[in-house]
Amino acid sequence: MKVKYTIDRATSSPVRLKRRRSRSTMPDYAKMKKPDVKLVILGDMNVGKTSLLHRYMERKFKDTISTVGGAFFLKQWGRYNISIWDTAGREQFHGLGSMYCRGASAILLTYDVTSWQSLAELEDRFLSLTDTASDDCIFAVVGNKADLTDAMAVEQEGEQEESCPASVCPTPPASPSAHKQVHREDAMALYRRILRYKMLDERTSLPAESMCFETSAKTGYNVDQLFETLFDLVLPSIMKKRDDEKISTVDLEQSADVAKAKSHCCS
Amino acid sequence: MSVKAFELVPAVGRELLMGDKALVNIECIECCGKHLYVGTNDCFIYHFILEESTSTKGKVTYSSQKLLHKHLGLKKPVSELRAVSALERLIVLCDSTVLVVDMANLEPVTSGVARIKGVLAFCVNENPVNGDPFCVEIGIISAKRRTVQIYLVYEDRVQMAKEVSTPEQPCAISLDGYFLCLALSTQYIILNYSTGASQDLFPYDSQEKKPIVKRIGREEFLLAAPGGLGMFATAEGISQRAPVSWSESVIAAAVCFPYVVALDQGFITVHSMLDQQLKQTLSFRDGIILQDFEGKVALTSTKAVYMLVPLPLEKQIQDLLAGRRVEEALVLTEGARSNIPKEKFQVMHRRILQQAGFILFGQLQFSEAKEHFRRGQLDVRELISLYPLLLPAGSSFTRSHPPLHDFADLNHLAQGDQGKVQCCKRFLISYLREVRSSDGSNGWRQDVDTALLKLYAEANHESLLDLLASDNACLLPDSAPWLEKHCKYFALGLLYHYNGQDDAALQVWVRIVDGELQDSTRSDLYEYIVDFLSFCPNLAVVWKYADWALNRSTKVGVQIFTRRPVEEEQLGKMNPDDVVKYLQKYSQALVLYLEHLVLEKRVQKERFHTQLATLYLDRVLSLLAASPPPVEEVTEARRRLQLLLRESSLYRVQCLLDKMGEAELLQERATLHGKLEEHKEALHILVRRLKDASAAEGYCVWASASRGSAYRQRLFHLLLGLYLEPGSAGDVQAVLAVDLLNRHADAFDAVAVLQVLPEGWSLQLLRPFLSRALRETMHGRRTAQLALGLARSENLLLHHDRLKYQGGPIFVSEKKGCHLCHNTFSEPDCVCLPGGVAVHTHCAAQRARDSPSKRHCANPSSHT
Q1: How many domains are there within chain B?
Q2: Do A69 and B225 touch (CB under 8 A)?
Q3: CA distance A124 to A139
Q4: Which of A136, B72, B165, B605 sits a CA distance of 20 to 30 A from B171?
Q5: In terms of DSSP H, where are the helices of B744-766?
Q6: What's B72's domain CATH number?
Q7: What InterPro entries does this protein map onto (chain B) (predicted)?
Q8: Does the residue B271 lie in any domain?
Q9: Could you tell me the CA-to-CA distances from B473 to B117, B384, B426, B450, B464 in Å, in that order?
Q10: CB interface of A with B, residues 34-73, below 8 Å
Q11: Would the CA dihedral through B535, B538, B539, B545 be positive or negative?
Q12: In the predicted model, is pLDDT for residue B784 greater than 70?
């Protein structure tokens, strides 16, 4: 990001603007906090991507409507800004996925534990979108709606309720009612297939055990662990990115000098 | 959706264009400063001057004046127009041909080659990489299949700079730097024409709908995506902003920071780029063109041109605030930071933060409100003034205009809900405390402190006393009635005291103690008052309330005087004589005060000592007069009297003796005699009347305590004499005498004792005395001998030294020279300087004269 910024500076010297432009430039859009790293949540519609993000950012669960296009949030994590992109699961917006994933440092492939189809879709439809992600991108396979099948995830609700009384929860099911279609082993198998797809060595990559999560956006079960684990894992890639930028910044400053010299000749 | 970001204003009506020719439509427009160009489908270009005027109410209107219209001589519509003001040229696309015409007269440029054929669409690079100010870079979609060309347009010619091929047929183009953003038939791509690198963005279907490729800033484009989305994409192929949601039928889009404006068949929609929310919808039928030009947004129907006038940012923000949409208002404000001069922005930002703070305050979201107030540097009085009666009556404060909020006061805000009022008050307390501890209250501390005092008093808050006891600026005339109203009388006293009105403070407190006023703040208020008086520097006040305090309790009340700091006494501020005189009425207090003076302060004044001794004596006498006398009290009273008599030597003895009269106070009487040095009488009383041998011995020790041993010896001999005096019950006295001798052997002169002792006493009886006396004598003798020996030896040594320093003979001859003038001696007289150096007498005298410090010590030490 800094690379670009340097270019902006170099080219926006007022002298040059006046002489060169036939029309004035667009207003300089307010520079938003530049994210250091990008996380993208992918998955079929209705698996609960928006709810997961909402639970993490707002600490509560609310009914969401189908996401249009995508949305993103900025999360301050230590000294870094992490942008988290929530994508639309609908087929209609599928084409945008690879653009969202471009340069991503972490991708959350999300499915619904009560729907085998949602896991299958990850492999069939979403995996190819991740081709544009950065080379050292890490993957997490996330099974949401664990509260529907898992007693443990329901119990969590009580604990969460205390800490966040604002959470809006309709009467929780007395016991897990829905049939669990996807087990953690299936998710782990998918994770290993992802590694193979990426042609990564399973032994040198992050282990499936630690990268497959079962969560519940509704009760908050495992949600914080999921995001915070990923944040910690992407930090090294931020450092690397910053180092890269340092190197390129030097180059750009040189080119900026050239540009200045040029404008001198014209006067 | 309550923001009104834009207003739709007609600019050019159909009467100035095609009139009533139904088949003629607008095809394209261009706006450059005041110049508006319109291209029509019957191959005309119209040139208007657009005058913008603002009414007093801030309403913008446009009046247009047609300067020229010109037929291009072709039969095709004018598809695109772009003005290049630096070159004074208009680039026109008509009949697949790019022409360059003069901006002023619309005549085609004839010199040189100013024409490109086979063009489907073109765009101007607003951020060109080449630095040549005299040319414009345009990108064109060529009629040649799957090709994009870059041309440089000069004043009188065009020149191709680059040609790149694309994987599919392009149908829309935008250019920034080296980056071409293209809509191909099935997808959008970014193509770097310098390197040829291409970056797929996302797929879409050009058959289904018309693509939109719109440059919105450096290396950032806005694209129409499937599902009616407006997607943002950077040249790197990354989306940095979340998409905005348009309708499926979107025709055109424009950007006017911070908004994205889109046109569809029925509406103009306005989304914010800051939060991607839909902000405004305007109904607009049959729109065909929407474009932004230098911050203006123009749109057309088929027959007329309109302008979308952005409302002033501040107006928009105020509208948002009026709609209680704080978050959006702040986002909009902060988004504008870089577009407004810094000074102006800061003023605006502060004000908006303050307003936002008040809105949140009204919603009882105190922590957020506080944060906004803090960042907005709110004049804290704005907040205080919301609370009725809190600001001092004399405060010069008036609320800022225009108002920061629409609350009349707290009651209006809370709508009578007392719970809310209480919450607000608690918040104000905490806020004011923070303000006090920071420097936010600069200049209006009085208002802040007075308000805080009132809140504390009302809420029965424990910090009220802390506030008054510490450094504060509470206004007395305003605070006092308030404290009275809330029965905070103790605090009221503190307030008076802080303002230097100790009398008033005491008046209030006294009334509390007397039960006239009810305030249970301090259960020990009486002690507090006494303590207060003991430190009070205003003596008039002290005297005024001393009676009250002493009447209540003499014992405690007297502390007014006894606890006074010492320094003050030294300054003579409170004269002890005055106090003593004053305390005559209160005998107990007087005793306590005199004890304080005599025993604690050790004041060495006869008056006090005598008076205290007299008072003690009176007490003893009065106790003894009772029948039967209370034993314990008598003992205690006598103990005190005796102690004083013994310890003090300032009181008037004779006076006390007289006063004592015939009372059986033998011990005291003996002490008094002792003070008069009438030891014989004293011992007589002790031995004969009191018959207390140990008291007699004690007396001897006491009476001789500060005297020499001879005095002591005299007393002991007196006592011994009394014991040995015949005529009394012999045996007992003999035993006492022996005991005395044996116990105090060292106090006696053994020889004198032996002379007075009766002959018949056995040696055995006096053994301890004798052996100690003997040892003492021996010791004395030996010590004396030793001292003598030492003295002798010292004398010898000194004698030796003296002889040594006298030195040997000094020889003077005619051959020897004087050490000062180096002449020889001619006569025997000479002066001998220390060290045996012989010099002339006149030389020595000269030297003595010359050395000022030794003028007097030039005496010759010896002559030869």
Answers
A1: 2
A2: yes
A3: 16
A4: B72
A5: 750-756
A6: 2.130.10.10
A7: Clathrin_H-chain/VPS_repeat, CNH_dom, Vam6/VPS39/TRAP1, VPS39/TGF_beta_rcpt-assoc_1, VPS39/TGFA1_Znf
A8: yes
A9: 84, 16, 21, 7, 13
A10: 68-72
A11: negative
A12: yes
Q: Which domains does chain A have, with CATH numbers?
A: 33-266 (3.40.50.300)
DSSP A181-225: ---HHHHHHHHHHHHHHTT--TTTSPPHHHHEEE--TTT-TTHHH
Tokens at residue B311, please? 């409302």
Instruction: Provide the shortest C-alpha distance from residue B532 to chain A (in Å).
Output: 51
- Determine how β-strand A138-144 pairs with β-strand A106-112: parallel
Whether chain B has a CB inside 8 Å of the CB on A14: the answer is no
pLDDT digits (tens, 9 = 90+) for A82-93: 899 999 888 888
Contact A22 B239 (CB under 8 A): no
Chain B contact for A258, CB < 8 A? Answer: no
Domain presence at residue B264: yes
The reply to whether residue B242 touches residue A27, judged by beta carbons under 8 angstroms, is: no
> Which residues, numbered 204 to 233 in chain A, qualify as contacts with chain B under a Cβ-Cβ cut-off of 8 Å?
none
**Which tokens in the block code for residue B832?**
């001998």
Tens of pLDDT, residues B534-580: 888 777 888 888 888 888 888 887 888 877 776 655 554 677 777 78
Q: CB-CB: which of B204, B255, B336 is closest to A95? A: B204
Q: With an 8 Å Cβ cutoff, are A103 and B136 in contact? A: no
Helix (H) or strand (E) holding B345: helix B342-362
Instruction: Report if residue B713 sits inside a domain.
Output: no
- Report d(CA B92, CA B811) in Å as an integer: 138
Question: Across the interface, do B294 and A24 touch by the CB < 8 Å criterion?
Answer: yes
ipTM, interface predicted TM-score of the complex: 0.72
Interchain CB distance below 8 Å, B242 and A71? yes
State the number of CA atoms in the 13 A half-sphere of B41 facing the CB: 10
Q: pLDDT tens digit string along B649-699? A: 778 878 877 877 777 777 777 787 877 778 878 877 877 777 777 888 888
Put simply, the answer to whether B131 touches A20 (Cβ < 8 Å) is yes
Give the one of A27, A90, A103 whose C-beta lies nearest to B257's C-beta.
A27
Secondary structure (H, E, C), B212-267: CEEEEECCEEEEEECCCEEEEEECCCCCCCCCEECCCCCCEEEEECCEEEEECCCE
The pLDDT assigned to A157 comes to 47
pLDDT tens-digit readout, B388-431: 888 888 777 888 888 888 888 888 888 888 888 888 888 888 88
Nearest C-alpha of chain A: how many angstroms from B516? 51
Expressed as residue numbers, the domain containing B80 is: 6-311
Considering the domain boundaries, does residue B228 fall inside one?
yes
* Amino acid in position A90: R
List, in order, residues 6 or more apart from B332 with CB less than 8 Å away: B258, B272, B274, B313, B316, B317, B320
